[in-house]
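Service request form, structural biology core

Requester: graduate student, group of Dr. S.
Request type: structure prediction, single chain
Budget code: on file
Notes: please return the result as structure tokens.

Sequence provided:
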Amino acid sequence: MDISDKLMRARCRLMSKQPFYGHICIGMEWIKSEMSGPVECRTMGVRIVNGGRVQCLYYPDFVEKMTLEETYGVVQHEIEHLVRLHTLRVGSRNHQLWNIACDAVVNGKRSKPRIGYEEPTETKLPFKNDLIFIPDDWPEEGSADQFYALMLKQVDAAKKCKACGMPIFEKKGDGGGSGNSEGEGQDEKEDPKGNGKGKGKKESKEGDSEDQNGQGGSGGQQKKKCSCCGQKKGEYQIPGITGRVIDDHSIWNDSDVSADEARQVVKELVQQAIAQSRGNVPGHLQEAIKALTVPKVRWREALRGYVGRYTGNRRKTYARANRRNPNFGLAGFSHRAAAKVNVIVDTSGSVSHEQLVQFMTEIESMCTNNQVYVLQWDHDFQGFNRYRRGDWKKWKFNGRGGTDMRMPVQWLMQNKLIANVQILLTDGYTPWNDESEITFPMVTVITSAKDQVPGPSYGKTVHINVGE
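Core staff response, request fulfilled:
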């Protein structure tokens, strides 16, 4: 069967058996590509480019080797990644662990898979023995973010190899072992004790795995294993996880549209598919689709918008002529140093260094058209100073004691230092001022999650997401 014909037939079967997926296929571009990296890692991947075009790139040899049913499942796999917006949230995460988390969510549990060609008696899965499934002790309805956090917790709690510093997990003697998620392990002939590390091929002479797609979708980079723990540096063996990433997640990095634009593109594609398939939507995707309709406001843009709204970047001055009425004695307007901004920083120790760096970087950009003053406070006054561009390099934060963010606001009022806008950075675990006290613009930036600390009832509230 011709490659393009096989893809077409797989998409047609999706349309007839699961029309929601089939209608999304219609809105995608299918592009034959030689791709990049080692040949064994060239598979299939999805991306959003050129102002909103959704593309699925596929390596011809990869599709040629699959059966029609396997092609059906892999196409379905790509659509799941797209709808769940996995391509947008890589950020500074460990790519291998994120790849594993995303594939586990897409594939579901081994006993209840979310993809695959359904027949009367069974569901035919692509590369059934190599798929990454959700472990039995993980929540079935968990998200990729939750699974990623679980794996990070396991990595942090594990003992570390003295030679390379990599985490070492206890191995089970049942042949299942602590699979390394990508089939990098030795086969049973080489490991008579049954300490299997996932389904994999024998090691090459150089000691590198020959299995497809590298470790965690890492692009097939081959690295020497540590002689002590047997792992490749930077690549983890997670207990309960076997199999490998079956598609190419490195293509996610090729997207050249913003996260908000990509979200809107996927939202429109999904809404069209729902309408055309008469609401025939898989149950396990309901929450992911609902999340597409929730607008995501990035804290940086929100903070800039609020500050710009309150400061206005405009003041009267006699140093400039009034352009509308140039008569002598009438003030003009200047857009330089237009406003004063007070920044209150919670230095109680609950705000992490990374969050402080992100926040001060954003404050740095405000110094262009505003006079910025920083008030440090934990349970008591810790300093009030003018902040100028570049001060973040030498700025020191004092305090690290308890938290009461009512006091700095009252201190500003008592000392008649209220500015055009006040910005408070805190973790949110503090008493708030009485709403009647706040008669001036106030923006509260909280480093805790919104569902944990909603914020005060007055002013505007922004929640920081680290790495965003």
